[in-house]
Amino acid sequence: MIRIFSHYVSKMAFVLLLLELLMLLTSASVASVLWFSDQNGQFRADNLYLSSLTFALVIIFSMSALGMYQHGSREGIRTTLIRIMPSFALGFALLSAMIAVRPEIYFGRGISSVIFAIGATAVVLTRLVVFKSAESALLEARLIFVGSGPLARECMDLAHSKNGLHQFSVVGCVPIAGEESCVPSAALLPVGESLLEMARRYEARELVVTVTNRRSKEFPVRDLLACALGGVRVIDAATFFEREACQIRLDSLQPSYLIFGGGFDQSFWRASVKRCFDLVASGCITVVSLPVMLLAAAAIRFDDGGPVFYQQERVGKDGRIFNVLKFRSMRINAEAPGVPTWASANDPRVTRVGRFLRMLRIDELPQMLNVFKGEMSFVGPRPERAFFVDQLARDIPYYNVRHSIKPGVTGLAQVRYQYGASVDDAVQKLQYDLYYVKNNSLFLDLLILIDTVQVVLLGKGSR
Question: Where does the signal sequence lie (predicted)?
Answer without folding.
Answer: none
